[in-house]
Write a sequence for this structure.
């Protein structure tokens, strides 16, 4: 648990401070040293137009993790609100909202994100929008599920009879109970968002050149797969390590917040 | 004025005599970044004729050899009998794939729908290039073409893959043509399959079958080639070319007429200013781009629009890299440098670049251009999209420069490229997406069409190229080689500078 959280913390710090650790400008080209092997001035080598791979990886951490954080937090807020509306709005509202949620869930999220990003055009804004639109449903399901079981509890009924507004009831009674489960879901969705950003970047729908982002680094490197495989291995390793660490952190968090599951 | 362009003697030399049929063997699978648009793409429509011509299904009246010189193909000879009159004598004994004979009337029947609005073969671009007033049959073997005005490019236009001789289609022969291969099936955007025509008039082909598979990702094509799924990759990734040859693959790298260039938005934005266009052109280090994006095998830096492979047509305009002069021009254009950034009308001068990824050299070229512009203090964005959408972005003003690869002479004649991309509305070909307008250029292009003396014509197209360079009407980056890769056992394949020819009777594949 401790080591996983430490690893996650290191990744978080890299996302924040990574750019200041970069030895070079990640967009500076050095044609005479293009495709240089690791070592010397360029610790992880250079890419096809002579840019420092390490610098791009460190700057890319900000983009990949930062965008994933943004996407997952927007999804968390939107999904929780929608779930609460379903839970607190009565049977008809619940039916409408949850059928809409099911409709969104019916589409494979990455495929839907590719379609949305394709229609909107490549770019960071399109990428965030596409992943947010396809990433709120799990929060809504969890919030609604827990919220429904909450509605009939005494203190909630009492609050309603006391004339508290629905917003106040949600704020003071529902959210504290939802938080632990939502945080666990959020860690999983954060990892999925990193994969989604990288996948869309690899497909050309993501962050545009010359901004370094792990998925677009993979995209740029694919024509060098056989001649300079390290160009793909570095960003690939970064994605794998980050997603693994966040997933493990999520598991550890779940275990600590729900000890009954651990004992089971 | 009345000049004779009799090419019968040349035909006798260049055209092979019909060979007795030999057994065809082998199936050749080709990877290419484009595929068929439907299940039986009409070669006369849009640019669909490229694939059928490349695959040896269709043939044109005239052809282009590997020196981009004209030769009679389905024609036996062509003769100009008046300023606007051309007599084409057909080769004797040629049959369509269904066995019916090729006659003068079948040529007329094949070409007439090109001008018929509503017909699937209707093609505005070809209507303009041909500029036909009428066609008549003089017996079974002579077609008399009458053009609306004198057109020196007319014999060259007869090499255009869309100006093709087709017979009546049927379910067995949806594309009923005359080539060494018979069209068998197409799966939209996936594959195009042909089989040998053992009765081909020029001799039966060596191959039994050939298939083109659409693979838009150069990296995927390279992997498929190494996995043995593909026998020939057209436009192999230049950056992996040396490595793949070291594995025993055969390389085919040769210059073509393809120009990698920036088409510009002339309607709105900073590039409406000629000085800024020239500054952008001067800021690009083309030598470095050729070295980095093409690994030195993919092309040569371009100053003029026509490459040296177009013998006699390429103007002597060297590419210039001069960042200091670029900055001077920006200042002359009214831009002001503040904190290292050029400002225009109080805003940072920003150039929006778009390109596409199906040719491996394009994205790094765009990124390098971006870096060179930023090096002189011009902001630039790069967006990787799709060719058609990029053209729309140029037209509707949401992009300033579209980096693209374009064949400058698919018919071998210099008139096509500037007329298509830069001529005014009078030419009506429809490729001037950036809205460039220059009456001087239009006048020169009209003169080029009507001038039959080759020396005078060369002078006109030299002036055309100089004007385009002076105006920076478009920004040439490099002349592209075609770098293709075939597996050991493939023989007879050669890169054609027009890129419209791949398969003929000679191409074979052995185990």
């Amino acid at each position: 648990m401790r080591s996983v959280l430490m690893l996650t913390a290191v990744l978080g710090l890299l996302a924040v401070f990574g750019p200041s650790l970069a030895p070079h400008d990640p967009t500076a080209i050095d044609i005479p040293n293009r495709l240089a092997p690791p070592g010397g001035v360029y610790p992880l080598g250079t890419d096809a137009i002579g840019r420092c791979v390490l610098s791009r990886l460190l700057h890319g951490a900000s983009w990949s993790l930062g965008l994933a954080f943004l996407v997952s937090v927007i999804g968390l807020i939107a999904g929780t609100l929608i779930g609460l509306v379903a839970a607190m709005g009565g049977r008809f509202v619940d039916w409408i909202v949850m059928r809409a949620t099911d409709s969104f869930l019916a589409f494979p999220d990455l495929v839907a994100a590719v379609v949305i990003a394709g229609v909107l055009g490549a770019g960071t804004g399109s990428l965030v929008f596409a992943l947010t639109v396809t990433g709120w449903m799990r929060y809504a399901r969890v919030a609604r599920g827990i919220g429904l079981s909450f509605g009939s509890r005494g203190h909630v009924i009492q609050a309603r009879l006391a004339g508290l507004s629905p917003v106040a009831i949600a704020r003071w009674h529902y959210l504290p109970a939802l938080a632990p489960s939502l945080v666990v879901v959020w860690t999983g969705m954060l990892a999925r968002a990193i994969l989604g950003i990288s996948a869309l970047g690899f497909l050309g729908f993501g962050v545009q050149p010359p901004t370094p982002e792990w998925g677009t680094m993979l995209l740029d490197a694919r024509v060098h797969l056989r001649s300079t495989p390290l160009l793909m291995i570095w960003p690939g390793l970064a994605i794998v390590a980050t997603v693994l660490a966040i997933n493990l952190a999520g598991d550890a968090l779940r275990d600590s917040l729900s000890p009954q599951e651990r004992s089971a | 004025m009345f000049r004779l362009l009799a090419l019968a003697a040349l035909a006798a030399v260049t055209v092979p005599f019909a060979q007795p049929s030999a057994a065809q063997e082998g199936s050749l699978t080709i990877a290419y970044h484009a595929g068929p648009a439907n299940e039986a793409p009409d070669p006369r429509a849009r640019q669909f004729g490229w694939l059928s011509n490349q695959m040896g299904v269709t043939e044109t009246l005239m052809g282009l050899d590997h020196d981009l010189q004209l030769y009679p193909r389905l024609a036996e000879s062509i003769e100009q009998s008046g300023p606007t009159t051309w007599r084409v004598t057909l080769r004797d004994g040629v049959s369509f794939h269904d066995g019916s004979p090729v006659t003068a009337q079948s040529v007329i029947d094949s070409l007439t729908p090109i001008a018929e609005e509503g017909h699937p073969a209707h093609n505005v671009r070809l209507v303009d290039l041909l500029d036909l007033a009428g066609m008549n049959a003089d017996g079974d073997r002579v077609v008399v073409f009458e053009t609306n005005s004198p057109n020196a490019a007319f014999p060259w236009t007869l090499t255009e893959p869309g100006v093709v001789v087709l017979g009546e289609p049927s379910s067995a022969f949806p594309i009923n043509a005359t080539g060494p291969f018979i069209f068998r099936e197409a799966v939209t955007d996936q594959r195009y399959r042909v089989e040998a025509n053992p009765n081909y008039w020029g001799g039966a082909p060596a191959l039994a079958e050939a298939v083109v598979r659409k693979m838009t990702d150069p990296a995927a094509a390279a992997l498929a080639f190494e996995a043995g799924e593909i026998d020939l990759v057209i436009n192999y990734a230049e950056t992996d070319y040396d490595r793949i040859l070291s594995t025993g693959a055969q390389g085919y790298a040769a210059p073509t007429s393809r120009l990698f260039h920036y088409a510009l938005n002339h309607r709105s934005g900073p590039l409406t200013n000629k000085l800024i266009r020239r500054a952008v052109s001067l800021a690009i280090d083309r030598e470095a781009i050729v070295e980095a994006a093409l690994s030195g095998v993919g092309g040569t830096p371009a100053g003029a629009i026509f490459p040296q492979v177009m013998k006699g047509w390429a103007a002597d305009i060297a590419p210039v890299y001069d960042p200091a002069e670029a900055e001077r021009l920006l200042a002359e254009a009214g831009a002001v440098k503040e904190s290292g950034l050029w400002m225009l009308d109080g805003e940072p001068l920003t150039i929006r670049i778009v390109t596409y990824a199906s040719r491996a050299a394009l994205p790094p070229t765009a990124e390098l251009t971006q870096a060179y512009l930023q090096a002189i203090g011009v902001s630039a964005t790069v967006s990787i999209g799709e060719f058609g959408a990029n053209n729309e972005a140029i037209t509707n003003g949401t992009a300033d420069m579209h980096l693209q690869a374009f064949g400058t002479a698919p018919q071998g004649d210099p008139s096509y490229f500037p007329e298509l991309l830069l001529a005014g509305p009078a030419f009506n070909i429809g490729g001037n997406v950036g809205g460039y307008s220059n009456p001087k250029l239009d006048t020169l292009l009209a003169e080029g069409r009507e001038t039959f003396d080759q020396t005078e014509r060369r002078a006109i197209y030299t002036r055309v190229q100089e004007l385009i360079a002076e105006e920076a009407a478009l920004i040439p980056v490099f002349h592209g080689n075609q770098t293709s890769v075939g597996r050991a056992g493939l023989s007879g394949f050669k890169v054609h500078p027009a890129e419209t020819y791949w398969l003929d009777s000679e191409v074979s594949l052995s185990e």
